Amino acid sequence: LQPGQLYDINSFTIASVVRENGGEPQRLGILHDEVADIREKISRALRDYDVLVFSGGSSAGEKDYIAEVIQEKGIILFHGLQIKPGKPTMFAIIEEKPVFGMPGTPASAVINAVHFIGPALRTMAHLPAKKKETVEARLSRTTTGDKGRVQFMTVRLENGEAVPVFVESSAITSIARADGYFRIEVGQTVEKGTTVKVTLF
């Protein structure tokens, strides 16, 4: 990798979620941080595809122009959710087509693809809702959720226990080492030994 470059993880994980929910993903590559390039690529994609999904470029960074271009072309229904990981998630409609702006961090992209993209595709394709497989496990250590957001805590299942593995949204290990996740309400403290319901990936 050159300085400033990152490995592309999100396009593969999001494509997997799309495929599991009846879609046919097509990875279109990386957009340049230039308004003209983003505008042209979005226009082309709208001609060829039913749903658009972006990863990254939807937060408040100096060169995060995707939201700006989408606002020009359509209507943003929401931009920002009180959940962790995944706060900068965006959803818009352009030319009657759904557009998802997923966060650029790996944990956020996967969690929100599962929660939003998967169910949306199933609704569009008239497929039944995907049954979520869950197991119960004892929490291995006391864990406190975010003070301002609902948190989906990723965990590894080990000897009947749910072991928290979430480090931060940008850490791929927060997903790679996880078997699933459980929900923590805003500011909630879940004590060690509490039985939690883990939704499996």
Account of the 3D structure:
A hairpin with a 2-residue loop joins β8 and β9. α1 runs parallel beside α4 and α2 crosses α3. The protein is of the alpha+beta class. It has 5 helices and 12 strands. The mean pLDDT is 92. The strands form 3 sheets. A 5-stranded mixed barrel has the order 6-9-8-10-12. A 4-stranded mixed beta sheet has the order 1-5-4-2, sandwiched between helices. 33% of the residues are buried. It has 2 domains: 115 residues, MoaB/Mog-like domain (Molybdenum Cofactor Biosythetic Enzyme, Chain A, 3-Layer(aba) Sandwich), CATH 3.40.980; 67 residues, Beta Barrel (Beta-clip). It is 28% helix and 28% strand.
How do the helices and strands line up, and which of them pair or pack?
Layout: H1 10-20, H2 35-48, E1 52-55, H3 66-73, E2 75-79, E3 83-84, E4 90-94, E5 97-102, H4 106-124, E6 134-139, E7 143-144, E8 150-158, E9 161-164, H5 173-176, E10 180-184, E11 189-190, E12 195-200
Parallel strand pairs: 1-5, 3-8, 6-9
Antiparallel strand pairs: 2-4, 4-5, 6-12, 7-11, 8-9, 8-10, 10-12
Brief characterization of the structure:
The chain has 201 residues and is of the alpha+beta class.
List the keywords:
alpha+beta; globular; five-stranded mixed beta barrel; 28% helix; Molybdenum Cofactor Biosythetic Enzyme, Chain A; four-stranded mixed sheet; Beta-clip
Question: Which superfamily, in CATH terms, is the homologous superfamily of the largest domain?
Answer: MoaB/Mog-like domain
Largest sheet: 5 strands, mixed, barrel
Order of strands, main sheet, comes to 6-9-8-10-12
Low-confidence stretches: none
Q: Do you know the CATH architecture of the largest domain?
A: 3-Layer(aba) Sandwich
Strand content: 25-35%
Give the helix proportion (percent range).
25-40%
Overall number of domains: 2
For this structure, what is the CATH class of the largest domain?
A: Alpha Beta
Question: Roughly what is the average pLDDT, rounded to an integer?
Answer: 92
Order of helices and strands: HHEHEEEEHEEEEHEEE
Radius of gyration: 18 Å
Q: Determine the number of helices (DSSP H or I, runs of at least 4 residues).
A: 5
Task: Provide the structure class.
Answer: alpha+beta
- Give the strand tally: 12
CATH T-level topology of the largest domain: Molybdenum Cofactor Biosythetic Enzyme, Chain A
